[in-house]
Specification:
Blueprint (H helix, E strand, L loop, with lengths): L1 H23 L4 H7 L16 H18 L6 H18 L10 H25 L2
Length: about 130
């Protein structure tokens, strides 16, 4: 069981690193790998908010994975604050990165992904104590 947890923690940390790289790279790495174009952002789901759904899905995934893995850790609350802070800082930094753009919908989606994951974990913690 320890190997599974260690592997999942490695995946979590690798996912956070991947998130930082794709957020701060000048251009779209995913667009390059999928379409051969650094200027094109892929949409997982077509929507009027652009790539905001992509942001929500990835931040939800990373947050759920991390929060579930560190649920009983003393640094759980720090992880929560760190994920919220990361979700905001990475989007704000896109103001100064060439070929990247700050979008308010993306910052809301980032924050919402972390918030929904956090609320689900808190509900689980509440119901599992009974």
């Amino acid at each position: 069981m320890d190997k599974v947890i260690s592997s999942l923690k490695f995946i979590f940390h690798l996912s956070v690193l991947f998130l930082i790289v794709i957020s701060l790279f000048p251009g779209s790495l995913l667009g390059f790998f999928l379409y051969g174009d650094f200027g094109r952002q892929p949409d997982i789901i077509d929507n009027p908010f652009g790539t905001a759904i992509n942001h929500f899905i990835y931040y939800f995934y990373v947050s759920m994975l991390g929060l579930c893995l560190y649920l009983k850790n003393l640094n759980f609350q720090r992880l929560v604050y760190g994920l919220f802070l990361l979700s905001i800082i990475l989007e704000i930094l896109q103001i100064i990165i060439p070929n990247r753009a700050f979008e308010i919908y993306d910052i809301f989606a980032n924050f919402a992904g972390v918030l929904v994951a956090y609320l689900l974990v808190v509900i689980y913690k509440f119901w599992s104590k009974t």
